[in-house]
Amino acid sequence: MNQPASSPVSEEKLTDATRWLPGLRAEIAKVIVGQHYLVDRLLVGLLANGHVLLEGVPGLAKTLSIRTLAAATGADFKRIQFTPDLLPTDIIGTLIYSPKEERFHTRKGPVFANLVLADEINRAPAKVQSALLEAMQERQVTIGDETYPLPEPFLVLATENPIDQEGTYPLPEAQVDRFMLKLKVGYPTKADEREILDRMASTSAQRSVNAVASLEAIQAARQQVNAVYVAPKIRDYIVDLVLATREPAE
Known about the structure:
By secondary structure, the chain is α/β, with parallel strands linked by helices. Helices cover 40% and strands 19% of the residues. The chain has a single domain, classed as 3-Layer(aba) Sandwich (Rossmann fold), CATH 3.40.50.300. It has helices spanning 8-17, 20-29, 36-48, 62-73, 89-92, 126-129, 133-138, 173-177, 190-199, 215-226, 232-246; strands spanning 51-55, 77-81, 93-98, 103-108, 115-119, 140-143, 146-149, 155-160, 179-184. The strands form 3 sheets. The protein has a 5-stranded parallel beta sheet with strand order 2-5-8-1-9. A two-stranded antiparallel ribbon has the order 3-4. Strand 6 (140-143) and strand 7 form a beta hairpin. Mean pLDDT is 83; it is low at 1-9.
């Protein structure tokens, strides 16, 4: 009988590859009070190479959490504020014609970063939201006739307000499908609210974070996560669950 890949040696490699995680959590906690559910799942998306969609009313530290994660990992970070007048070229980039040289130059958009914050993604119409489809699925962007690979790691972390908020658009099904996780962010606890109040009592209460994890460490951890052994019975169970959602009667 073949020994499964989840031998003690593999577990040791996985543990060693993710030693930076507790330090990263602690660094994020310097700025973010509570919200452990949110922070842990942002880290899941980071390790599993899956995009994350955060839904919640304004003021729940969605944007701040993502900015803090980028700072604590030393990742190249870009923020895109989605608005009704945003254009697809504002996201992926465009071709600029130079009369002097008589040729087009490529101007890359903010999507060319390790961590891309699509802030309030549902405040822009579907044609703008769809500008991210190729980038999120294939980790590349096509501008004109040229296709450009995106940097590694590449992760889209989007925030949205509940759809009953004024001035929002529903996300297309194809767009929703590109996200691995959708998190519904709730209000902090009473104790967390009190700590937030204490921290924000001064106008100079902003705290900075240090980069405690490198992009190389994240890539190495992803490789170990990809090597985690999953038994055939578990794989079959996953497929059965998916099929049950499509054909519940059967």
